[in-house]
Amino acid sequence: MKKITRRDALRNGTAGLFAVGVAGLAGCTASIPGMGDDGATVTNWLANPSFDDVFVGEEYEEQLDEFEVEDSEVTDLNFDYLVPEAVFDNEQELNGLDLVERYGSSLRTTIGVPAMETDWALEQQTSWSFDYSYEQEFGGGETSQSDDQISIETTIIGGSFEPDDVVYELEEWVEDQYPDGVADERELSSEGEYEGYELYYLEVQHQAFAINSSHIIEVSGDGNTDSIAAIESVLDTRWDSGADSRWAEGTDFEDVFAQYDPGHRSRGQLTLEPFSVDDFEGIEEWLDGFIGSITSYEIDGATSDVTQLYAYENERDASVDDLREFVENNRDIGEEFETLEDFSVADEGSILVVTGTVRTSTID
After folding, report:
1. In contact, 47 and 234? CB cutoff 8 Å
2. CA-wise closest residue to 349 among 318, 326, 322
3. How far apart are CA 102 and CA 316, in angstroms?
4. How many H-runs (helices) and E-runs (strands) does the chain carry?
5. Is 242 strand, coil or helix?
6. 8 A C-beta contact, residue 117 and residue 146
7. Residue 93 pLDDT > 80, yes or no?
8. Cα angle value 92/98/99 (rounded, 5°)
9. Which pTM value belongs to this model?
10. Residues 6+ apart with CB under 8 A from 284
11. 316: which DSSP letter?
């Protein structure tokens, strides 16, 4: 008889019901949002891997003669952060547990860990664009130019875990995914230890996992990315700060992250390509020079505090008056400023900061 795993219980809903039951017994929401038991902030985990470390060009080389990457740049960072306990403590105001089900749930289900046994979840996606050259097979060997994109997705959950149990659940999950597959690429392979984490790789899905007693990390890519190299970069980022490793240091987003407090729920969308009123017809004035935003919530009962950071390429583009007028005219129109009350807009150089309160039920 097959052992009923924690992952099976989660999939069947038993562990989820248990999590809801114990939520009412929780004392209070995590006292230091954005902090792990090792003192790491969210920004410690927002990795900025190099394209050269992550990119795998074998598929291009097989199909194109004289393939060569000419140039590359990281283009976008998107991330979502959540403290599950805050959701459980405010389930009624949030109209259910949708936030918990959306962020980190895929990895938690894979490893058989219910949300109430985790402290936080962080999902992030990093994208790169690159230009490359190749020699045409027909046409006298003429060199051609083209471009493409790659991305990796990373999920991290923090808490207290039994690594052996996690590995067992992971192996069971792989067996369920590929019950008839015995090929090497369909087996979970051990990739040794790195920075105190046990690494595992599933080739068929280009997934890498890093496991220890405090964090579980998953990196997913495709045939053009090296998930093991990417997960090692995430671990390097956590402990080794520097201009080349973190989005929060030595990048165009250093100023916005200096203002960032993750709260209980936050999301960010950042790009290295600024908006321009000259490039887009009908663009709002406040978006000129805009390179991204981060929104954070302190979830507390029927109303919650919100902080929205708007980042610009330079101080000249950051217009308090333009943004304030746009917010005032668009409250309750669309989702960005839904139910926003008692708001103010502050000037912090190239960063504009909108603060106010919102109905907790509108947080997503």
Report:
1. yes
2. 318
3. 38
4. 12, 12
5. coil
6. no
7. yes
8. 100
9. 0.86
10. 322, 326
11. G
